[in-house]
Write a structure and sequence with these properties.
Order of helices and strands: EEEHEHEEEHEHEH
CATH architecture: Alpha-Beta Barrel
Radius of gyration: 16 Å
Structural class: alpha/beta
Largest sheet: 9 strands, mixed
Number of helices: 5
Helix content: 10-25%
CATH superfamily: Aldolase class I
Number of strands: 9
Shape: globular
Number of domains: 1
CATH topology: TIM Barrel
Distance between the termini: 25 Å
Strand order of the largest sheet: 3-1-2-4-5-6-7-8-9
CATH class: Alpha Beta
Length: 209
């Protein structure tokens, strides 16, 4: 059994699958309370579902790309579900505070680790050992709302990054995109800048998109 906040079909708004039709599985519960969290409704709301029922609902959309998110999905035992989704492209969005799963993922599965910056209020919760687990197929995301966050993220990259693509995003409405891009170009850092595409297409408060 897992407590599920929502399951819906949309397009992926972030990361290397941006723009791709994706089934989102949002699990209930989070161990952090980030200042800029945009899914606070996932902290407690949801229904208990068997793994087979979750899989059935996911497969009903006939889309082979899945994003397991939250909340914090690694508060749940998702191993059995991942085995059922072995032939699906699956991204697991984690807040980086919990040890990553200690078994090999399918080559179609990847982590998206959101490393919490100082403005989140939880930068001290980063599990740095996870940088030793991440592979080339994984992604590391920093959500930035200030120059301090930007400099902090660069320092973390220099100290800990081994493998995986690096993404810089901004807290929606907090920084001018052009400012962050200017910093990246001035510093010649190897990162991907992204915007949250779903918040451009739909109202920022709309759920299920």
């Amino acid at each position: 059994m897992m407590k599920v906040n929502e399951i819906f079909l949309s397009i992926q708004g972030e990361g290397k699958s941006t723009g791709c039709p994706t089934v989102f599985l949002r699990l209930t519960g989070c161990n952090l309370r980030c200042s800029y969290c945009d899914t606070k409704y996932s902290y407690t709301d949801g229904e208990e579902l068997e793994i087979d029922e979750i899989f059935k609902r996911i497969t009903s959309y006939n889309i082979k790309r899945v994003c397991i998110t939250g909340g914090e999905p690694l508060l749940h035992n998702i191993k059995d579900l991942l085995e059922l989704l072995e032939d699906y492209y699956v991204s697991i969005e984690t807040n980086g505070s919990i040890e990553l799963l200690d078994y090999r993922l399918s080559n179609k599965h990847n982590y998206v680790m959101d490393v919490k910056t100082p403005s989140s209020g939880f930068s001290e919760c980063v599990c740095y050992n996870n940088f030793n687990v991440l592979g080339e197929n994984d992604e590391i995301k920093f959500v930035i709302s200030s120059r301090e966050d930007y400099e902090w993220a660069n320092d973390i990259i220099r100290k800990y990054h081994k493998k995986g693509g690096i993404i810089f995003s901004t807290v929606f409405g907090k920084l001018k995109y052009e400012d962050v891009v200017k910093w990246i170009l001035e510093d010649r850092i190897e990162v991907k800048f992204q915007i949250q595409l779903h918040k451009i297409i739909w109202d920022i408060n709309k759920r299920g998109v």
